Amino acid sequence: MNRLRTLVLVGVVIGLAACNKKDEYTLPKTGTGEAEIKGPAATSANNLEREHFLSSAQQEVAELGAKIETLRKQAQQRATAELQPKILALDQEMKNLQTKLTELKATTTDQWKTIKVDVESAIDHLRNAIDKAGEK
């Protein structure tokens, strides 16, 4: 099952490379120095934890975006509009999640853990919505 999932994910990633909507799921980059954490409360361990979480969340968001594109292709292959409303809702949830990630990136050391809960919740909700949308 994991092997099939990996193959499907690789196929989707390759398919996305040729997709016209490359910029639709752009993610904020980590470690760019744009939102440096300053002040005495900024500890290196906390910063490291923040960067690790942000990196893994961005990776998961990219995977969820790939799944949305897979569903989009399935809808086109079926030649029905059955999945289109679901995909539009998923696109909106993805944009909301990206906004939360951008907000997380811009936060200070003290504030990021509050937003972390929102990001984790949004990722779980989007994952469940994608699974439901893929059910027949």
Notable features of this structure?
0% strand, mainly alpha, single chain, 4 helices, 136 residues
Briefly summarize what is shown:
This protein is an all-alpha fold and 136 residues long.
Gap from first CA to last CA: 19 Å
Number of helices: 4
Supply Rg: 17 Å
The amount of helix comes to: over 70%
Q: Residue ranges: pLDDT <50 for 5 or more in a row?
A: none
Biggest sheet: strands, sense, closure? Answer: none
Average pLDDT confidence is 75
Oligomeric state of this protein: single chain
What is the H/E string? HHHH
Strand percentage? under 5%
Sum up the overall morphology in one term: elongated
Q: What's the β-strand tally?
A: 0
